[in-house]
Specification:
- The protein has helices at 3-14, 19-30, 40-43, 68-77, 121-134, 149-157; strands spanning 49-54, 60-66, 80-83, 95-96, 99-102, 108-116, 142-145.
- It is an alpha+beta fold and 166 residues long.
- It has two domains: 1-37; 43-157.
- β5 (99-102) and β6 (108-116) form a beta hairpin.
- α5 (121-134) packs across α6.
């Protein structure tokens, strides 16, 4: 993103425009959503995958992404998945939900990442279904999670393995 675009976004935000209004304005100015642009690195990654979910108020409620290297790591090391969330530790008051595994050198490797607005079953279902779609519908053999009933319900609903470990 250019400095000019970043400054325009800051100005619109300080003027009281919503994120969606700012996005729509930027898309109109650019001649369409596909002309808004991304960083050079992402535009060179044809397998970059992301999905956004908007709430009833038009604001982003959930966002998910993974790049091609994350997909490749998951194809190779995705038998075991660690899925945990942090509780609103960022300035946007969103919950970070990384999908992590371990490679053949016993190092962590990130398969995907998301920010979600709440820890309700519906959000976890959306997140797990999105993860499956992003990972070519390959399910892990085992999932390590925190002790969260909503997450356990979502895992069962999306038909992940029943040998999930809490």
């Amino acid at each position: 993103m250019t400095e000019e675009k970043a400054e325009a976004i800051k100005t619109m935000k300080s003027s009281g425009l919503t994120t969606m209004d700012t996005y729509n304005y930027m898309a109109t100015e650019a001649g369409g959503e596909h002309y808004i642009g991304h960083s050079v690195e992402r535009s060179k990654d044809p397998n970059f995958f992301f999905r956004v979910k908007f709430g009833k108020d038009g604001r982003i409620s959930n966002i998910f992404w993974r790049d091609s290297m994350m997909l490749e790591d998951y194809r190779t090391y995705g038998d075991v998945l660690v899925f945990d969330t942090t509780y609103r530790t960022n300035r946007y008051n969103l919950i970070c939900a990384p999908f992590v595994g371990i490679n053949n050198h016993w190092h962590n490797c990130m398969f995907a990442c998301a920010f979600i607005g709440d820890e309700k079953t519906d959000s976890f279902v959306w997140l797990l279904e999105t993860f499956l779609k992003a990972m070519e519908n390959k399910k892990p053999t085992s999932i390590f999670t925190e002790q969260d009933q909503a997450m356990a319900n979502a895992i069962e609903q999306v038909s992940y393995p029943f040998n999930s470990i809490k």
